Q: What sequence folds into this?
């Protein structure tokens, strides 16, 4: 892992900056330390799958990256811009609110429970943020929204409300909604865990398609097939720490840490 | 029948006073209630507690008492002491009172919205204000329609309290005729007027609920 000064020097040269640089992230809820120094770099076009037992801090880590949770210590750079870094006392300090919003806008996120807006139709869900947040005219965003819906295979559902969709369809709308904001990075927090087994395939296919288009992705998942076949790298978390991270083929063929091996065996 | 037709005129005039009070109260109490609810759920503890106290005071004392206080006692309160004419005094009392009830309805409605909606909006770049306006409040509207329907129907009937300020609302107009003509027919006609108003309100809210049911 790069030291603080190395991280700073990486940050100064935008061309070589990783998409995400997380360094020694600490996070506690009350007295419970959930992240105990997690570091991870995500390069452009990379797809990292984060796996690990329940409660190991995977979701918390992901949520820290886009400011859904605030970190206590550590550093987060997004495409070379610092979101938070330690002060002299070793406590994380965030940049100004406007800057936080600007930086986090580069990341899209897909949740386990979709979080679609139930009072809006599928199409309205997709165009709402571009119109409200970016101020784009409805007519200007419409072709792109339709193209995204076609891409996730739901153009025929454009006028349906989310309550009329299956879980797999909802998640694909959520992906299209996130993509409509043209993020550079996509974060996924167990996008298929709330789905019936027969519906996970359609969502995973959409994600694989994104990966094929070189979208940079960080995916918390229990789907070992996805981690093995789509992810370029796999990171294993346990007890608030990132235990090991390797290219996915090596990760499954030759896990280094005994806890990784134990976890992989338990998943079989 | 001729008698009924002859008293409909004065009763309709009374209804106008009733309706005026009703609509002005709604127009003031809904936005005020929303503002109170937003302060109540905000992080500003002092302001939030103050709103809490206000709601307690307004819901914990009779509207009649508040009405009498604002009309008769307010002029004698040091500093704020102002004398309001009778109808404005009624408006102030009703708006302040109903804002407290509406605030509680709005607060419950806002807090019933899943945290995932805020997070979904936040990761798309929505500010707090945009999240409230575009995502949360439109969903709140649907959830508060039933209690709002109840509350507005209660308001129609509560307007009759302004007889204590000698304002000629529907009920007071009816009572005047009853005392003049020694017949209770005006009461029956007044009841029909009230029923008609609440019927219209019920229809109105049912239509709103139906319109909002499309996304269940
Ligand atoms: N808002 C919160 N307040 C308090 N504790 C929390 C909060 N969010 C998470 N935790 C705790 O932090 C720990 C890590 O939770 P997290 O959700 O990050 O785990 P996870 O690896 O995503 O697990 P899962 O696979 O079950 O989703 C858990 O012990 C959890 O109870
Ligand atoms: Mg999780």
A:
């Amino acid at each position: 892992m790069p030291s603080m000064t190395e991280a700073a020097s990486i940050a100064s040269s935008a061309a070589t900056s990783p998409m995400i640089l997380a360094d020694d992230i600490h996070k506690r809820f009350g007295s419970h330390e959930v992240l105990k120094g997690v570091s991870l770099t995500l390069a452009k076009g990379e797809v990292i799958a984060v796996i690990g037992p329940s409660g190991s801090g995977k979701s918390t880590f992901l949520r820290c990256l886009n400011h859904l949770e605030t970190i206590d210590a550590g550093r987060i750079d997004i495409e070379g811009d610092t979101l938070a870094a330690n002060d002299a006392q070793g406590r994380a300090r965030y940049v100004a609110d406007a800057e936080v919003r600007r930086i986090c806008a580069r990341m899209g996120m897909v949740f386990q429970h979709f979080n679609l807006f139930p009072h809006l139709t599928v199409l309205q869900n997709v165009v709402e943020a571009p119109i409200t947040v970016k101020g784009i005219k409805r007519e200007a965003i419409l072709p792109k929204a339709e193209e995204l819906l076609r891409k996730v295979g739901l153009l025929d559902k454009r006028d349906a409300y989310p309550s009329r969709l299956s879980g797999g369809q909802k998640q694909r709308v959520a992906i299209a909604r996130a993509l409509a904001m043209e993020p550079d990075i996509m974060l996924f927090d167990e996008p298929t865990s709330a789905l019936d087994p027969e519906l996970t395939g359609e969502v995973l296919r959409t994600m694989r398609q994104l990966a094929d288009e070189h979208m940079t992705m960080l995916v918390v998942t229990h789907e070992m097939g996805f981690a093995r076949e789509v992810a370029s790298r796999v990171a294993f978390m346990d007890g608030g720490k990132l235990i090991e991270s390797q290219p996915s083929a090596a990760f499954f063929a030759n896990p280094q840490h005994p806890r990784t091996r134990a976890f992989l065996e338990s998943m079989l | 029948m001729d008698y009924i037709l002859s008293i409909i005129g004065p009763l309709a005039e009374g209804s106008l006073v009733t309706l005026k009070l009703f609509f002005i109260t709604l127009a003031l109490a809904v936005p005020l209630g929303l503002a109170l609810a937003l302060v109540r759920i905000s992080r500003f503890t002092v302001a939030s507690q103050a709103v809490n106290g206000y709601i307690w005071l307004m819901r914990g004392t009779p509207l009649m008492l508040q009405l009498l206080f604002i009309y008769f006692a307010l002029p004698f309160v040091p500093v704020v002491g102002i004398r309001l004419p009778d109808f404005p005094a009624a408006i102030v009392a009703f708006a302040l009172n109903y804002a407290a009830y509406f605030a509680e309805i709005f607060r419950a409605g806002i807090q019933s919205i899943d945290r995932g909606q805020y997070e979904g909006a936040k990761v798309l770049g929505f500010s707090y204000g945009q999240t409230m306006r575009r995502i949360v409040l439109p969903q709140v509207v649907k959830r508060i329609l039933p209690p709002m329907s109840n509350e507005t129907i209660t308001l129609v009937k509560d307007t009759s309290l302004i007889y204590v300020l000698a304002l000629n609302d529907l009920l007071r107009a009816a009572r005047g005729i009853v005392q003049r003509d020694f017949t209770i027919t005006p009461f029956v006609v007044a009841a029909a007027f009230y029923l008609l108003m609440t019927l219209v309100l019920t229809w109105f809210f049912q239509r709103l609920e139906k319109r909002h049911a499309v996304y269940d």
Summary: The CA atoms of residues 74 and 80 of chain B lie 8 Å apart. Chain B has a mean pLDDT of 93. Chain B has one domain: 2-215.
